[in-house]
Amino acid sequence: MIQIEIELQKLKASLQEMWVLVEKQLKKSEKALLQFDKATAREVMSREKMVNALELKIDAECETFIATYNPVAIDLRLALSILKINNNLERIGDFAEGIAIFVIKNMSEELPEPFKSNLNIEQMFKEVLTMYALSKEAFNEENTEKAEKVFGIDNLVDEINFNAVKILSDEMLAHPAKAEELMFLHAVVRKLERIGDRCNNIAEEVVFYLDAKILKHQKESLP
Fold first, then answer.
1. pTM of the complete model
2. What is the pLDDT at residue 110?
3. Average of pLDDT values for 99-122?
4. First to last CA, the chain
5. What DSSP assignment string belongs to the chain?
């Protein structure tokens, strides 16, 4: 039906708006953390309500579409995927806000070298932003190959997160007066790892929409 196609394009347009908004939040949180920029951190916090409002709007649009048109097959999968992608984007926005809150409330100075390099936090931001861009491109281009690239990068993000524990504990031993701040910084690293997980979720939804394959909870087969 032509009307279904029109409504699906409207849903896609709303999701694009959400994608752009959350990407700005993520990039601003990166700037706030790496440059110790509290003004930018406050911008992130002030725009969080916009992210929440847009999530609710898209949810309502998807629910209305499903109730009105009773879509089937790929049209239904697309609507369900938009619902789930929307939720994942909102959570990424929440994590970006959490990073901004750390900068404002718990950060006392710019991260020093070589500690920042050892922690690999710039690389972590780079990788999650790449995952974010790839998942968006995979959806827009209906390209499962790009979606699958996200899964590989997620392993690297997990590795950086794992290695951060030892680096942060060593820094606490060297600078015990900063132990509390470093504990909060570990929470920031964990938030970045969770952003990677959410990008992974989005890529899985793209595969579901296009190929009708459910990847969530699947485990690698044993040799």
1. 0.93
2. 96
3. 96
4. 47
5. -HHHHHHHHHHHHHHHHHHHHHHHHHHHHHHHHHTT-HHHHHHHHHHHHHHHHHHHHHHHHHHHHHHHH---HHHHHHHHHHHHHHHHHHHHHHHHHHHHHHHHHT--SPPPTTHHHHHTHHHHHHHHHHHHHHHHHHHHHT-HHHHHHHHHHHHHHHHHHHHHHHHHHHHHHH-GGGHHHHHHHHHHHHHHHHHHHHHHHHHHHHHHHHH----TT--PPP-
State which amino acid sits at residue 64.
T
What distance separates the 2 farthest-apart alpha carbons in the chain? Answer: 66
Which two structure tokens, joined as six digits, stand for 41? Answer: 């951190």
Query: d(Cα 32, Cα 27) in Å, to the nearest integer?
Result: 9
Asked if 51 contacts 90 with a C-beta cutoff of 8 angstroms, the reply is: yes
Are 106 and 191 spatial neighbours (Cβ–Cβ below 8 Å)? no
Residues 70-103: tens digit of each pLDDT: 999 999 999 999 999 999 999 999 999 999 999 9
Extract the tokens encoding 203.
């890529």
**Best CA proximity match to 202, nearest among 132, 127, 126, 142:** 132
Contact in structure between 32 and 107 (CB atoms under 8 Å): no
